[in-house]
Request: fold
Amino acid sequence: MKLKWFTVIVAMIFLICNMGATIEANIAASASTLELEETINTAISWTTRNLNKTVLTQHVKTFAGFGSRVTGYEGNLAAARYITREFKNSGLTTITQNYSLAMPVDHGSWITVKTPNKIKIRINASALWPNGVQTCLTPPEGVTGKLVYLRNTSILPENLSISESVILLDFNTGDLWLDLAKMGAKAIIFIEPTSTTMLESMKKAVSAPIYVPRLYVSKNDGALLKSLAAEGDTVAVHIGMKWENLTASNIIGIVNGTKYPDEVIVVSAHYDSWSIVPSSAPGAEDALAISSLIEMAKYFSSPAHKPLRTIWFVAFSGYYQALTGPAEWVEKNLFSPEEGTKRRICLHISLDYSTGTGKGVDALYLGPPSWFGYQTQYASLYSTVEASLRRYIRPVLDKYPNMREEDLIRFNFAGGGGSIYQMKWGTQPVIRGNSWFYHLSTEPTFHAGILSFTLRTQWAYRETWWTPLNDEYHINWPDIEPQIVVSMAIIAGFANEEQWKLEYRQPSRGQLLGGGGVAYGFSTVNGKTVEYDVNIGWYRPLPNVLVRMVVGRTSTGRDEYLLWPFNCRYTFSDNNGSFTFHGLITLRTLIQGATAGLYLFDAWKFNETDGSIMY
Reply:
C-alpha cells in the first residue's frame, strides 16, 4: 500500500512540475508575443511620424535629378553613390558588389541642318532604345533627308516621298512610326510632349532589329524643327549609341542582429529606372521604394530599434535588364565559395511601390513571364508565411480602422477555390492579351530555394512610368503611407520574431520538391560564340560578340514577351568567345515534361562605323 501511495505522490509531483513548466513556457510565449506587438507598434508609430511626404520627396527629387538611372549610365552611378552615403551616414556596414553587363550607351546624338543661306545649325537630341539589338548607330556623315513634319497623322501630304524623308512626329502618335518605317522613312524624330503615358512609350519598342534611326528632341527644339520643315530644309541625323560592357553595382547595408546575428532577413528595392529614351529616365515615382528603403534602414540601425535578426538592406541595379542585378546578387551571396556559406539567409522581402491605384500591396512570390513555382507544392511552403503576415499586420488594421485587411494586403500564396492560377498575379493588371509585364526582384532568390516575396502596390497600372518625362507631379502621396506602414510592420515582425516558424531552406541549384516531381533551381549557362572556318573545317571562337538571352518563351512557342524590352539580358563574349549567364530556371515539372519558360540565345556582331549588322 505504501508503495502505491509513493507512486501516486511521485506521479502527482511529476505532473505538477510539468504543468509548471508548461505554464512558464506559455507565460514566456505570451510575453514574447506582447513584446513583439509592442515592437511592431513602435515601428508603425515611427513610420507615420517620420517617414512622411517631406522626407520622401527629398529622396525622390534627388533620384529624379540624376537625369537617368538606367543601369550603367552616369545617373545610375550617382544614385549608387548616394545610397552608399545614406547607408553609411545611418551607421550601416556597407558593401558594394559589382557585376558586368552589356548596355546600349548613348554617347551623344544630334541633328544638323544647313539652311539655304548656308548657316549650319546643330540641335542636340537623344537616341531611343534600340530596335531589338539595333542601336541604329549612324555613319560619320549621318543619315540625310528632307525634313517633313506630319501634323495630321491620319492624312499624309500629297506627293510625299517617305523614302526620301526624315519624318518629324509628335511623341504621342502611337506606333505610326512603324508604318512610316515600312514606307521607307530614312529616320524618325519625336518631339517632347507635355504629358504622355507608359503605353505611348511601349509603342516605340520593337523586338525586330530594323535599321531606322530614331531621335527625341525637346519641345523648344521641336518648334525650331517644325519651322525648318516648313521651309523644306534638309537635315542629317546622327546617332552615337553603341553596345558596351559596363560595370553596375548592388549595394548592401547591414544592420547586425542583437540576438540572432547569423540569421539574415533581406529587404530590397531596385534603384535603376528605365525609359524608351535611355538618356532621359528620371523615374521619380519609380524611386519611391528605394527612398523608403533608405529611411527604413535608418530606423532599424538606431540603437533603440536594433532588430533581433540581422537585416540586409539591398539596393539592386539591373532590375530592368530581366533581373540581371538580383540574379548576380544571388550568385554572389548564395553560391560563391567565399560568400555563400558565411550566413543563413532566412527570408527575402522586396518593395515595389507606386501610387494612383490603391493604398495596399499584393504579397507575390512569383511572376511573369515564367510563373515559375505556381504548383501547390510551392504554394504550401507559404502557408506559415501567410499566417505570420496576418499576425504582424493586426496593429496596422487598428491604425486604419476604415480599411479592410484586403485593402491593405492581399495574400497570393495559395489558390482560391483550388485554382492554382489565382496564386499568380493578385490584383496586378493585364497589359496586353494574356500578358503581365512586371518582374519581382525576389524571383531569383526564390529560384534558389529561399522563401521570398515582393510587396507590390495593388492594381499597379503605372500609367506614367517608363517615359522620358519627370512624373513626380503624378505621385499621389496619400497612397504611399499605408504601403510603407504595412511593410514596416512585416519587416519588424520577421526581424524580431522569437518563435520563428518559417522553414529554413538551404540554397540549391537544383532540388526536387514533393512526390510530384516538381523541381526548382538556379542554374548557370556557359557558352561560346563561334563561326565556321572553311579553311580548317571546324569552328573557331568569335570574340567580343553581343550575346542576348531572351527570358520567357513559353513551351507553346508563343513569343509575346519578346516585345517586352525588360525581358532580355545582354553580355559580350570575351577574347576567347566565352560568355556566362547566371540564374536560369531548371525544369519545372518532371512528370509533365514542361519547362519554366524557355530561353532564347542569339549573338550579334556590328559594324562599328555604320552600325550595320555583320553577323
DSSP finds 14 helices and 26 strands in the chain. Confidence is low (pLDDT under 50) at residues 8-16, 415-422, 588-596. The two ends are 100 Å apart (CA to CA).
